[in-house]
Amino acid sequence: MASRKDYAPQSRRQRKAPAKSAPKPPKAPQPAPKKVPWKLAITTFLVLAGLVFLLNQLLKVDSTPAQPAQVERSAPAPKPEPKAKPEPKPSQPKPVTATPKTEKTVVAQPKVVERSTKAAPTPPPAPPKPKEEKFTFYELLPESEVTPAQVDAYKSTPRTEKLSKTYLLQAGSFRSAADAEKMRAQLLLSGLPNVKTSRSDGKNGVWYRVRLGPFESRSALNKAQDKLARLNISAMKIQLD
User: Fold this and answer.
1) pTM of the prediction?
2) What beta strand segments (E) does 8-77 contain?
3) pLDDT (tens digit, 9 = 90+) per residue, 33-60?
4) Integer Cα distance of 40 and 43 in angstroms
5) Which of 239, 222, 227 is nearest to 161 (CA)?
6) What is the CATH number of the domain that holds 168?
7) Long-range contacts of range 23-28, CB-CB < 8 Å, 24 or more positions apart?
8) Residue 126 falls inside a structural domain
9) Is residue 93 part of a domain?
10) Contact 175, 208 (CB under 8 A)
11) Span 165-175, pLDDT tens digits
12) What does 155-183 look like in DSSP terms, one character per residue?
């Protein structure tokens, strides 16, 4: 009996003990919110703005009414005036003349049969003969020979040879004696021989001339002319009687 009593409270305890709930499974972590990239947002905004702008432009183009093309109408050409038809002339009756009937006699003429005779083919013309070239060059050579004139050999005159006539060289002529003396001194300093000044009275007034010479040999005359040319003086050659 005692064992039964002990069993009964134990079973009651077991009934009174609350049943433990099963452990709940762990919650899955929530995914982080996706971030929209700012570059993609800007590009989409620009694309939308461009589409809106294009639509506005197309609407403006469609709204403008097309102007009718101005066509120049040419004036119609004047119609030609109808010409007046000539009035028909009354036809006069032709006189009727009785012509006697004559019997026609038909004469049979012999038929002439023409036979076509074919002409014989003419032979082609012979080619022209080439013209013979006449070389008259060799015949003209002896006719065109030129005999040169005989010229004596040039004989150079020696420098020391005396001239057939005596010459003076006039370096300049002045109105004042001072200018003439100045030129005379310049020529003497340059080494020119026999430099003299002379006075001449004429229709044109008084002139003072500067002269060199006389020169009896060709070499002395040429040397004096060369020195005067170096001094930029163009001398005048005067022949003495």
Assistant:
1) 0.34
2) none
3) 555 577 888 999 899 998 998 888 888 7
4) 5
5) 222
6) 3.30.70.1070
7) none
8) no
9) no
10) yes
11) 888 899 999 99
12) -PPPTTPEEEEEEEEEEEEESSHHHHHHH
